[in-house]
């Protein structure tokens, strides 16, 4: 616990600033939060009570704050999704944190820094929000996307010490990202990661966000993953990977993805695969619902899984924004229990513990429900149950997959809002008969209850499935890879990069084949009669 | 004498809080229905057991709160403080920043040893506040990482540091379809370790309590809080002061010692279950009256038919006739459902407790052949009513059905272990395959009653 410092007094001075901000719109609060950093407020005093109220509880020996996470966003896709994440994270915290006090929940993803007087770098641990800085590292080997972020409304959330950019991009070439830029920027990356880590008092998790199909996110992103494992072996590594679709415009995307897959197999704790096709169809579905006259008017705009309403970002939406908001919401829900309280907390380290039975089988298929909430506040439990049913349906998954017709190794339900254990139990009992679980994990359910719902909702659900339904995504990728590889198409672009050998390709494809084979073997047990091992016999 | 409660993990802390709250509510209850003098000595004994007095006058729970993450503890401390009737000691808790991640090995092999000194210091301080220490009551779940792993480790430390004190572990049995996927592993590891260091394990099954909330309490949307309040009520109904022998003039001085003496005649069998009657919503209570013979008849049938509540009891189940031992193995016979006891303790509270006939519990047919009913059955009483119940009875029993529960969990864990699923998560923190095997062996032994001791005639 950090004792009151003189800076806290300055912090209190800012209370009036946020109090006068419009209290209902998240946007207003967020603006107020940022305004504080730039403006130089006149001291008013008072208002520190809210921060102080909890203090006696926490100043006793052993008391501590929450853990922190760092987001590493790499390449165009990684940075664009990351950008949506930070925006919606601020919206979410602003909705909960009405007083504008820097609290533990905020500290998990944001630093609070006093940027006045020449931009000192010291963290302010308690009291008023000065200027929130994302615990993030932005990496791209071209400048376009990052520059756009720096000129946009989120510019104050990042500072120049958190960026690594180059000018030419990786040209959709994994080898350029991984081998060339990897070695060139290694020291740089390590240094910035260390600096970011030093600002955390208990760093629990890295979230890497990237695409698999391009060069930078795929190549350099997985290089960063290696660095994280070397430098921070104790810290969990969650990777959000956007897989290319069959009609992807990047011709070499199968190469890039398969090369990246080998790294994910070996160095990630959990991977959340995402397919743009799935994001796109969810966006279309929501669009259809809301533009149909009858429903449209009753849907709460800020509840849409695709919406930025109420966020600080007021500019024109960009093409990927709606899709990326879905991914941002996935990350928000995934981390909600680590940030807010609940009657059954689900810490981030519980996810891999419960969902990863074998080290390489760490690909989790996710689905988010509901897609929107109606303005009608009365929630009959039928609608609540629908939320659970939808989470298992094919068209709510974030990859093209059908978990119901494949084999579950394990399943997690992360619920937010006004939902109790009895709701969970009822729905698990109801849904269980329609799902196949592997013989040794017939009751493979992990659940978490977080009491704070997402903005605009009374409740929400994130389902994470370790399910053999990821296999088709992988086999299709393998097929597309083989089509190119048989013809040795474009290989020379890769092999000309230093350190890139033909064996990189053969090892990558065999790593992927092995993974597919592991899923095959599990699938085979589905039809086999359940044989149970005989119990240990105690000799008399 | 006093009891120091050690609350471990989310479940342990959430339940621990409700226990102190239930005890404190009962303390202030105006439904006492006994003489003023009686009530005063009851309150006195209650206070000494569970609370220490501070200058401010607000009773302070004799408790140590431990968790590896901060959210639950800070919430628990603040809601207790807000009640105004009692609070926790500001110094008597320990938490860290990140939980044990449902990993027993992390709690037991990493967090346990790392924080042993700090935690044992807190326990020591709490123990020193007691004029006379009866022992420790630890509250934890078996399914998570902190309550279970740290709990097993701390129990061992308590055993070493306080060799003559009693240790009773309250363990929460996970829901069948769990909230934690590795719960069967964690449970096997916990049980096998507690078997070696605790004096007794008091078991509450979440599934059973959940049903009580639904069917007896009529709660529609059941929260953990509701479940915990039922558990706390049951615990309070046993551990609030009683006269532990006929004609005693003083409230029992050593509740834990008396409990162990009555219920754990042999160290191989130390799992205890708890049932109570009546249990209902406050609304229904207003319109209900009870007779002692009715309550006792139900309670006895709940025991022998292994029902957790008074609703849905199978009245067909009967003790085996003398000379007709329970038939072995899978027989469709009703007698198969008969739940044999090793020892039972009935706690009676309220009006006319002196006149209650408990002959039905003295039937030798209820017990194993190696203990006679005089030794195997004990009664505690007080005319002071508990909570809002004019008459209430609780039964703590050491009986066969808990071994079946354990068998079920060991079976599921073994099934998973055979495929080696999740084992790598434990080896990361120093628990190897052989350690698992040792734990399986301990529990298989505990179930068959092999070891130094074979006379038990139980059937499965
Ligand atoms: N969902 C989503 N996908 C994107 C976005 N931007 C690009 N993609 C996908 O990502 C893949 C291309 O990778 P990029 O992230 O653009 O490439 P990069 O990592 O910047 O690498 P280079 O440009 O080669 O240096 C394609 O499959 C695109 O469909 C985005 O904002 N959201
Ligand atoms: N009755 C009851 N059971 C609970 C409660 N909270 C958690 N549980 C049960 O406890 C188990 C989960 O263990 P927790 O106590 O949450 O875990 P922990 O000890 O905090 O350990 P980690 O979180 O893994 O560090 C599950 O079986 C839950 O059903 C509660 O308040 N009441
Ligand atoms: Mg690019
Ligand atoms: Mg916990």
From TrEMBL, chain A:
It comes from Gopherus evgoodei. Belongs to the tubulin family. The keyword GTP-binding applies. Its cofactor is Mg(2+). Keywords: Cytoplasm, Cytoskeleton, GTP-binding, Microtubule, Nucleotide-binding. This is Tubulin epsilon chain. Transmembrane segments: none annotated. InterPro entries: Epsilon_tubulin, Tub_FtsZ_C, Tubulin, Tubulin/FtsZ_2-layer-sand-dom, Tubulin/FtsZ_GTPase_sf, Tubulin_C, Tubulin_CS, Tubulin_FtsZ_GTPase. Residues 344-479 form the Tubulin/FtsZ 2-layer sandwich domain. GO terms for biological process: microtubule-based process. It is found in: Cytoplasm, Cytoskeleton, Microtubule organizing center, Centrosome. GO terms for molecular function: GTP binding. Found in a complex with TEDC1, TEDC2, TUBE1 and TUBD1. Pfam families: Tubulin (PF00091), Tubulin_C (PF03953).
TrEMBL record, chain B:
The keyword Calcium does not apply. The lineage of its organism: Eukaryota, Metazoa, Chordata, Craniata, Vertebrata. PANTHER family: TUBULIN. It comes from Gopherus evgoodei (Goodes thornscrub tortoise). Gene3D superfamilies: Tubulin/FtsZ, GTPase domain. Pfam families: Tubulin (PF00091). InterPro entries: Delta_tubulin, Tub_FtsZ_C, Tubulin, Tubulin/FtsZ_GTPase_sf, Tubulin_CS, Tubulin_FtsZ_GTPase. Acts as a positive regulator of hedgehog signaling and regulates ciliary function. This is Tubulin delta chain. Transmembrane segments: none annotated. GO terms for molecular function: GTP binding; structural constituent of cytoskeleton.
């Amino acid at each position: 616990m950090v004792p009151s410092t003189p800076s806290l007094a300055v912090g209190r001075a800012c209370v009036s600033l946020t109090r006068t901000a419009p209290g209902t719109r998240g946007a207003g609060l967020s603006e107020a939060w940022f305004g504080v950093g730039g403006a130089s407020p006149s001291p008013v005093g008072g208002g520190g009570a809210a921060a102080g109220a909890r203090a006696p509880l926490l100043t006793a020996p052993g008391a501590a704050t929450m853990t922190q996470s760092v987001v590493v966003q790499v390449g165009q896709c990684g940075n664009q999704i990351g950008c949506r994440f930070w925006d919606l994270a601020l919206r979410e915290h602003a909705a909960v944190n009405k007083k504008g006090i820097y609290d533990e929940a905020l500290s998990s993803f944001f630093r609070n820094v006093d940027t006045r007087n020449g931009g000192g770098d010291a963290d302010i641990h308690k009291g008023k929000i000065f200027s929130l800085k994302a615990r993030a590292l932005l990496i791209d080997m071209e400048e376009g996307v990052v520059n756009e972020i720096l000129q946009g409304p989120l510019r104050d959330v990042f500072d120049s010490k958190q960026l690594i950019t180059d000018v030419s991009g990786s040209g959709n070439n994994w080898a350029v990202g991984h081998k060339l830029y990897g070695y060139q920027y290694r020291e740089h990356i390590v240094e910035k990661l260390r600096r970011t880590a030093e600002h955390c008092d208990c760093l629990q998790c890295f979230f890497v966000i990237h695409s698999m199909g391009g060069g930078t996110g795929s190549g350099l992103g997985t290089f960063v993953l290696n660095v994280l494992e070397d430098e921070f072996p104790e810290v969990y590594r969650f990777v959000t990977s956007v897989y290319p679709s069959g009609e992807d415009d990047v011709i070499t995307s199968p190469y890039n993805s398969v090369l990246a897959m080998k790294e994910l197999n070996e160095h990630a704790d959990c991977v959340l695969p995402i397919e743009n096709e799935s994001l796109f169809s969810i966006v279309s579905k929501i669009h259809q619902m809301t533009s149909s006259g009858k429903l449209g008017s009753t849907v709460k705009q800020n509840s849409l899984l695709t919406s930025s309403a109420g966020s600080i970002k007021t500019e024109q939406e960009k093409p990927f924004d709606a899709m990326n908001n879905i991914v941002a919401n996935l990350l928000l829900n995934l981390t909600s229990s680590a940030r807010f309280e609940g009657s059954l907390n689900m810490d981030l380290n519980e996810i891999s513990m419960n969902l990863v039975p074998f080290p390489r089988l760490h690909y989790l298929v996710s689905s988010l429900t509901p897609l929107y909430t109606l303005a009608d506040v009365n929630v009959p439990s039928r609608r609540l149950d629908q939320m659970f049913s939808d989470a298992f349906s094919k068209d709510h998954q974030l990859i093209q997959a059908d978990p119901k017709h494949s084999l579950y190794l394990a399943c997690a339900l992360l619920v937010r809002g006004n939902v109790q254990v009895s709701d969970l139990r009822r729905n698990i009992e109801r849904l269980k008969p329609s799902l196949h679980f592997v013989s040794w994990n017939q009751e493979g359910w992990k659940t978490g209850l977080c009491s704070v719902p997402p903005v605009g909702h009374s409740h929400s659900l994130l389902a994470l499935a370790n399910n053999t339904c990821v296999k088709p995504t992988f086999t299709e990728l393998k097929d597309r890879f083989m089509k190119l590889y048989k013809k040795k198409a474009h290989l020379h672009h890769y092999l000309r990069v230093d350190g890139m050998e033909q064996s990189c390709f053969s090892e990558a494809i065999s790593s992927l084949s092995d993974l597919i084979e592991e899923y095959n073997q599990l699938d085979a047990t589905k039809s086999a009669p359940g044989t149970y091992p005989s119990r240990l016999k105690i000799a008399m | 004498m006093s009891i120091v409660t050690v609350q471990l993990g989310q479940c342990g802390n959430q339940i621990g809080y409700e226990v102190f709250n239930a005890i404190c509510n009962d303390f202030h209850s105006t439904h006492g229905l006994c003489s003023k003098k009686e009530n005063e000595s009851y309150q006195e004994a209650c206070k000494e057991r569970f609370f220490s007095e501070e200058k401010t006058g607000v009773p302070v729970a004799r408790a140590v709160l431990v968790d590896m993450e901060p959210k639950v503890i800070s919430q628990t401390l603040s809601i207790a403080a807000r009640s105004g009737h009692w609070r926790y000691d500001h110094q008597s808790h320990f938490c860290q920043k990140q939980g044990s991640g449902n990993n027993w090995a992390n709690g037991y092999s990493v967090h346990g040893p790392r924080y042993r000194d700090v935690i044992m210091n807190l326990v020591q301080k709490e123990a020193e506040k007691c004029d006379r220490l009866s022992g420790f009551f630890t509250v934890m779940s078996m399914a998570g990482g902190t309550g279970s792993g740290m709990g097993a480790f701390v129990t061992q430390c308590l055993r070493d540091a306080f060799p003559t004190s009693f240790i009773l572990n309250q363990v929460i049995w996970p829901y069948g379809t769990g909230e934690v996927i590795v719960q069967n592993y964690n449970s096997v590891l916990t049980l096998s370790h507690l078997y070696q260091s605790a004096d007794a394990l008091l078991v509450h099954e979440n599934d059973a309590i959940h049903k009580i909330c639904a069917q007896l309490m009529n709660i529609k949307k059941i929260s953990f809080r509701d479940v915990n309040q039922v558990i706390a009520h049951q615990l309070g109904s046993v551990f609030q002061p009683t006269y532990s022998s006929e004609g005693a003039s003083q409230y029992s001085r050593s509740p834990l010692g008396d409990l162990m003496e009555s219920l754990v005649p042999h160290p191989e069998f130390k799992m205890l279950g708890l049932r109570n009657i009546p249990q209902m919503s406050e609304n229904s209570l207003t319109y209900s009256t009870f007779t002692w013979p009715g309550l006792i008849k139900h309670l006895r049938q709940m025991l022998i038919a292994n029902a957790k509540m008074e609703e849905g009891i199978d009245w067909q189940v009967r003790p085996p006739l003398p000379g007709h031992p329970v038939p072995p193995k899978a027989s469709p016979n009703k007698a198969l459902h008969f739940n044999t006891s090793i020892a039972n303790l009935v706690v009676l509270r309220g009006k006319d407790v002196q006149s209650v006939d408990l002959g039905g519990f003295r039937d030798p047919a209820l017990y194993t052949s190696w203990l006679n009913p005089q030794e195997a059955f004990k009664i505690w009483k007080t005319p002071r009513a508990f909570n809002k119940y004019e008459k209430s009875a609780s039964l703590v029993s050491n009986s066969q059905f808990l071994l079946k529960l354990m068998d079920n969990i060991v079976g599921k864990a073994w099934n998973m272990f055979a495929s080696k699923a999740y084992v790598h998560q434990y080896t990361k923190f120093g628990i190897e395959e052989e350690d698992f095997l040792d734990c399986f062996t301990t529990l298989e032994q505990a179930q068959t009653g092999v070891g130094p001791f074979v006379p038990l005639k139980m059937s499965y």
